[in-house]
Amino acid sequence: MKVNIPRGTYDVIPGNVEKWQYMEEKAHDLARRYHYEEIRTPMFEHTELFQRGVGESTDIVQKEMYTFKDRSDRSLTLRPEGTASVVRAFIENKLYGEPQQPVKLYYLGPMFRYERPQKGRMRQFSQFGIEAFGSVDPALDAEVIAMADSYCKELGLKEVKPVINSLGDMESREAHRTALVEHFQARIHEFCSDCQRRLNQNPLRILDCKVDSGHELMKSAPSILEYLNEESRAFFEQVKQHLDGMDIDYVIDRNLVRGLDYYNHTAFEMISFSEKLGAIKAVGGGGRYNGLVEEVGGPETPGIGFGLGLDRLLLAMDAEGQALPVDKSIDCYFVAIGEKASEHIPALLYRLRQAGLSADKDYMDKKVKAQFKNADRLNAKFVAVLGEDELAKGEINIKNLATGDQETTSLDTLVSYLKEKL
Ligand code: HAM
Question: In sequence order, what are the residues at sequence separation of 6 or more whose Cβ sits closer than 8 angstroms to the Cβ of residue 386?
Fold first, then answer.
């Protein structure tokens, strides 16, 4: 029986995996420069964490979680995002007690959401995310946005920009909530059943509805920016000033709402404006979540972060015709002429690899011509050709495939010869 891959998942095979490795290396390097340290949390958590952390009214918790009972009848959920898990780990490992604050963390890895698969929407996808805990300095908000922006730029993306908004503090959000309920209430029957539920549960969610996005009441809906109190307004101004100081090209979208409940003050998405990209434009999103650490049972601690979708970043790169500079070559390929030479090559190969070079040989009993063809196909920088005559003299012929130059070197100095040439 043939078993296929589950819907909404994919294999990353050689030829493609190099792009992923490149993006992961870039993420580690960027995190190092911004001084964020890596954290690794489990792929599954107690379901309750996401119910409380992500929010009961969100689509994620309502219909997208991979939730299952384990053999001891515990309800567990494959992580749909990284923030709730990192918050849990921050509390459980008492990182709030670290002398060095804010605590700046990053992660890379797969997330799981039971969504209707389409281009850019998968059931298993990967995020590069960061979370910074313990500071309410608006400069940190700007740092987080700058880091997301730098990552996109360093992948070569030119048409991705941060789209930012402020959701304000609790007081501002309450005032806005009341205004939203008033705005939608009389005509809520014209909206989908989800929106009807959202009206009382979390009316902000209505603005994010994919079904009713064309409704006229959506465009005229009251914006949070009109309801920001003085403090929230000043905070947003400072975030913008810092971004201006960094010359970051951002867009303000007064209607930007995020799909997760925990945000306040700064909320942003990294949007691709490339016309060639399909309907899904957000390659990342993030914002401030003061209050979430308490919600999950920790001490009062502010937080802010982002999650960038590596899958969508790859699609955005494709749309922009941006290829990653991935190197698939190997340093040296051995070609054996005759059985004696062939027997001698494994030991040479071993020495090269021990010395840090990438090298390979034929294992399919190929003829000499076909071995050379392998070297070409594998993009070898050098071909080391060993015949019986050379072997008898303790020598080996080296061909530089880029220049076509050929030289002979002693078998004893092969490693140092190649190292020097590379
Ligand atoms: P999010 O907006 O739900 O935020 O996801 C962040 C990014 O993950 C999206 O912009 C997208 O690129 C990618 N993504 C989400 N769902 C899918 C999917 N089904 N298929 C492919 N890619 C997807 C969060 O997850 C928050 N935890 C971000 C955050 C961190 N906020 C503060 N800290």
Answer: 334, 335, 336, 337, 341, 344, 345, 348, 396, 397
- Predicted TM-score (pTM) of the model is 0.93
Q: Return the pLDDT at 1.
A: 86
Q: Does the pLDDT of residue 205 top 90, yes or no?
A: no
| Ligand 1 atom at shortest distance from the alpha carbon of 270 | 10
For 258-296, write each residue's pLDDT tens digit.
888 889 999 999 999 999 998 899 999 999 999 999 999
pLDDT digits (tens, 9 = 90+) for 122-145: 999 999 999 999 999 999 999 999
- Please tell me the residue having the least CA distance from ligand 1 atom 28: 307
Q: Which atom belonging to ligand 1 lies closest to the Cα atom of 309?
A: 12
210 phi and psi, to 5 degrees?
-80, -30
**Which of 10, 123, 260 has most ligand 1 atoms within 8 Å of CB, for mutation?**
260
The pLDDT mean for the chain works out to 95
Q: Which of the four pLDDT bands, split at 50, 70 and 90, describes residue 73? A: very high
Q: Judge contact between 151 and 24, C-beta under 8 A.
A: no
CA angle 252, 233, 247 (to 5 degrees): 45
Number of H helices, E strands in the chain: 15, 16
Using a 6 Å cutoff on CB, does residue 311 contact ligand 1? yes
The DSSP secondary structure of 293-347, one letter per residue, reads HHHTTS-S--EEEEEEEHHHHHHHHHHTT--------EEEEEEE-SHHHHHHHHH
Assign 405 to helix, strand or coil: coil
Q: What is the Å distance from ligand 1's center to 238 Cα? A: 26
Which atom of ligand 1 is nearest to 305's Cα?
A: 33
Substitution candidate for ligand 1 out of 127, 133, 263, 290 with most atoms within 8 A of CB: 127
Query: How far is the centre of ligand 1, averaged over its atoms, from the C-alpha of 280 (Å)?
Result: 12
pLDDT at 17 over 90: yes
> Which residue's CA is the closest to the ligand 1 atom numbered 16?
121
Nearest to 175 by CA among 227, 245, 236: 227
Compute the distance from residue 112 Cα to the ligand 1 centre, in Å: 10
